[in-house]
Structure to design on (406 residues):
């Protein structure tokens, strides 16, 4: 069995676009006719440029190879261009292609992917959700109103969710780490207080920041929210500053989490060595399913847990779930339960009562609905997510609008 053909589906989710401005889904076909799906997570280039990268990685390093030879293909890509170092764009392309190889292998053996990763460790996996505004709500107000967030959290807990994530701490800025405005610290504490009051001990609070702060600013913020006992403090400093991660981890009782912007075990090993206790690989960027399994093992050896990140489409979600089923140190997986996630593929595992069951179908257990994909083409060359150039507004306050496409 050899890899023969590649197709790329650039899909734009309808407004408000939870999961990003576009999703890049790949489908590989082996010479025996078996197909496999994968998904490439957000990249630093536009969708058309990224499609060219994906095609190049496949033709250069994977076409004609057995889909079984995951490690060999990974080493080719990791070493390409005389680099032998993490490259988020090239490894993102490989990550989606690698997922598709696992889908092919599972179908060829008539077993779910988790069965090829060490078997079923977990019959079901705990899931968490981001807090999003409901249809018809004032979306601008939602991101800065603790009472609206608390109401949304109470609704999610009533549905069975046991963990909710939110990030009211300020701008998503290109300017790197900064000192948070005092108003942002107060707003963050207000969100934590209102949500904790609404859910009590029925759910964990997951506090995100998107790598915005210098260590001193992150520590000030951590001290303000510690009384509400969040389960994690996500990416408190820029993702490339591992000593800063260590400084924050030493200064707070809240477990530090990170990983959505890291790639390969090399970077996750650094994060773990600098005090991260919860790793959050996005499998469409981190190197794929096999690299995700290695990252989970590194975390297990360090006494840390894994919580795969999701701000993408339903193919990465399926890959995350198969990995989670196989891991003894899984904490939870991020889920996005929109109608479009559900209709773009058939067989998508759903979250019910806050948990997702281990999939039983061969491979990833999903198939792309080509008609739905064709009806939602990408018509923009903007990036999957974008950061603002304006600095922190210390006078008027700040808001992060949850990654909604505009």
């Amino acid at each position: 069995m050899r890899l023969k053909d590649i197709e790329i589906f650039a899909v734009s989710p309808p407004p408000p676009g939870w999961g990003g401005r576009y999703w890049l889904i790949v489908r590989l076909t082996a010479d025996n006719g078996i197909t496999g799906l994968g998904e490439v997570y957000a990249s630093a280039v536009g969708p058309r440029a990224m499609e060219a990268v994906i095609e190049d990685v496949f033709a250069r390093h994977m076409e004609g190879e057995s889909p079984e030879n995951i490690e060999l293909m990974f080493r080719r890509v990791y070493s390409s261009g005389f680099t032998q170092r993490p490259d988020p764009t090239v490894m993102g392309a490989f990550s989606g292609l690698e997922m598709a190889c696992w889908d092919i292998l599972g179908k060829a053996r008539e077993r779910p992917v988790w069965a090829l990763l060490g078997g079923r460790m977990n019959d079901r996996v705990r899931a968490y959700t981001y807090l999003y505004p409901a249809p018809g709500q004032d979306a601008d107000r939602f991101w800065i109103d603790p009472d609206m967030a608390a109401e949304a959290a109470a609704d999610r807990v009533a549905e069975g969710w046991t963990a909710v994530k939110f990030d009211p701490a300020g701008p998503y800025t290109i300017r790197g780490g900064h000192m948070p405005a005092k108003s942002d610290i107060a707003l963050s504490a207000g969100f934590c207080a209102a949500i904790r009051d609404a859910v009590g001990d029925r759910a964990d609070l997951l506090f995100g920041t998107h790598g915005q702060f210098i260590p001193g600013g992150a520590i000030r913020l951590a001290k303000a929210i510690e009384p509400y006992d969040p389960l994690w403090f996500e990416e408190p400093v820029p993702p490339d500053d591992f000593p800063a991660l260590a400084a924050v981890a030493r200064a707070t009782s809240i477990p530090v989490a990170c990983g959505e912007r890291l790639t390969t075990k090399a970077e996750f090993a650094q994060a773990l060595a600098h005090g991260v206790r919860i790793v959050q690989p996005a499998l469409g960027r981190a190197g794929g399913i096999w690299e995700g399994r290695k990252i989970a093992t590194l975390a297990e050896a360090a006494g840390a847990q894994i919580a795969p990140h999701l701000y993408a489409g339903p193919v990465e979600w399926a890959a995350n779930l198969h990995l989670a089923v196989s891991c003894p140190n899984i904490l939870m997986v991020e889920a996005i339960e929109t109608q479009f996630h559900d209709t773009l593929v058939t067989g998508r595992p759903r979250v019910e009562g806050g948990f997702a069951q281990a999939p039983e179908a061969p491979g990833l257990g999903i198939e792309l609905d080509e008609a739905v994909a064709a009806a939602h083409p990408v018509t923009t060359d903007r990036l999957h997510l974008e950061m603002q150039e304006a600095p922190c507004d210390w006078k008027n306050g700040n808001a992060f609008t949850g990654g909604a496409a505009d």
About this structure: Residues 277 and 304 are 5 Å apart (CA to CA). The first strand starts at residue 3 and ends at 11.
